Amino acid sequence: PRCGLVFIDFSSGGLLHISARGTVIWDGPDVTEFEGAQRLVQFEVDGWQWVDGVLPLRWGSEEQSPFLENT
């Protein structure tokens, strides 16, 4: 049930790490509220940590790959 979630701020190189406990909800009214959902994951956050500028690389605006034009 222990989970870790990582979110990256691509423009600043910052990183948010969230420690949580997760529960899979397989069926019931909570699942049917989301059209097309087969299950849900519920997180109970235990703690979080923000680390500023930890990633040395920076990214700009997204750009579609030219290889996707034919797909």
Describe the structure using short key phrases.
71 residues, 1 helix, mainly beta, 3-stranded antiparallel sheet
- How helical, in percent, are the residues? under 10%
By DSSP (H or I, 4+ residues per run), the number of helices equals 1
Side by side, the strands of the main sheet go: 1-2-3
Order of helices and strands: EEHE
Radius of gyration: 18 Å
Instruction: Show unreliable segments.
Output: none
Task: Look at the structure and give the mean pLDDT.
Answer: 89
Tell me the quaternary state. Answer: single chain
Briefly characterize the structure:
The protein is built from one helix and three strands. 0% of the residues are buried.
Characterise this structure.
The protein is mostly beta strands. 6% of the residues lie in helices and 45% in strands. It contains one helix and three strands; from the N terminus they run ββαβ. It has one helix at 29-32, and strands at residues 2-9, 14-25, 40-51. It has a three-stranded antiparallel β-sheet, with no helix packed on it. The mean pLDDT is 89.
